[in-house]
């Protein structure tokens, strides 16, 4: 009798989606090194680049059917560096260095909020409502800080005047990440379906406007951050009215 050899399962990782994750990780690392060299505008841009790459890795994995547990964990570690540590450190070096322990505290609140947000997200992958995020997503929180830095540098604002506003924003982003406020995930939008022609033109003009005015990124994500408490209050009001009826 000829004995059959047991099939050996090869271990490895999917290259394509993890390349995007590595790119996002490098962008976050580059933001830190740029801030250490005093190139804060470059650091802010690098954080936005990390956001784009982070948004692509998951979509590429789904399109190519290359999702894996390794990829999910690697993505979380990359997010921690790019959206937790990097924006907090860049903001500290740009505005908080003269504030001493208060500045350290604000930067740490954002960093810790990012870590707790990612840990909670990983534990709720199978049970959470896909339509909403619980707490402000870490990329959006990072975009608020990076956008504020970008605006401050482009308009040459006096750091001594706006540093306390930066301090407030940094603490708020950290707390919003660990809050119970519900944020739309936009996963219910059908990007494959047909839309009217004027909608395509409107989207094109919107993208062009944002590219021409990068500071608009800050306002867009700030509105998104405010939408969490508003959406949560509306949902709770509807539940309360339903129970009352």
Helices and strands in order:
Blueprint: H1 15-36, H2 40-63, H3 69-96, H4 101-123, E1 132-134, H5 138-154, H6 159-177, E2 182-184, H7 197-212, H8 216-244
Antiparallel strand pairs: 1-2
Helix pairs in contact: 1-2, 1-3, 2-3, 2-5, 3-4, 3-5, 3-6, 4-6, 5-6, 5-8
Brief sketch in words of this structure:
This protein is mainly alpha-helical. Helix content is 73%, strand content 2%.
| Neighbour order of strands in the largest sheet | 1-2
- SSE ordering: HHHHEHHEHH
The mean pLDDT is 83
CATH class category: Mainly Alpha
Task: Explain what the structure shows.
- This protein has helices at 15-36, 40-63, 69-96, 101-123, 138-154, 159-177, 197-212, 216-244, and strands at 132-134, 182-184.
- It is an all-alpha fold and 245 residues long.
- The protein has one domain (15-187, 203-244): CDP-alcohol phosphotransferase transmembrane (TM) domain (Four Helix Bundle (Hemerythrin (Met), subunit A), Up-down Bundle), CATH 1.20.120.1760.
- A two-stranded antiparallel ribbon has the order 1-2.
- Helix 1 (15-36) packs parallel to helix 3 (69-96), helix 3 runs parallel beside helix 5 and helix 5 (138-154) packs antiparallel against helix 6 (159-177).
- The longest helix has 29 residues, at 216-244.
- The radius of gyration is 21 Å and the shape is globular.
